[in-house]
């Protein structure tokens, strides 16, 4: 008898790959100062999720 293969509810590799690509698109062409401001803005969002 073969073991049951459960379907994934959440694919973390796919999720993080999509997020990495989204961030890359959003930050493309930014200066270092603009990039630092972008990170600071999104850092506040991440802190709210804790």
Can you tell me about this structure?
The chain is an all-alpha fold. Helices cover 66% and strands 0% of the residues. The protein is elongated, with a radius of gyration of 17 Å.
Computed structural class = mainly alpha
Secondary structure: helix percent? 55-70%
What proportion strand? under 5%
Mean pLDDT: 86
Number of helices: 2
Q: What is the N-to-C succession of helices and strands?
A: HH
Number of β-strand runs: 0
Give the CA-based shape.
elongated
Distance between the termini: 43 Å
Low-pLDDT residue spans = none
Largest sheet: none
Radius of gyration: 17 Å
What's the short version?
By secondary structure, the protein is mostly helical.
Which labels suit this protein?
50 residues
SSE topology sketch:
Layout (H helix, E strand, L loop, with lengths): L11 H16 L4 H17 L2
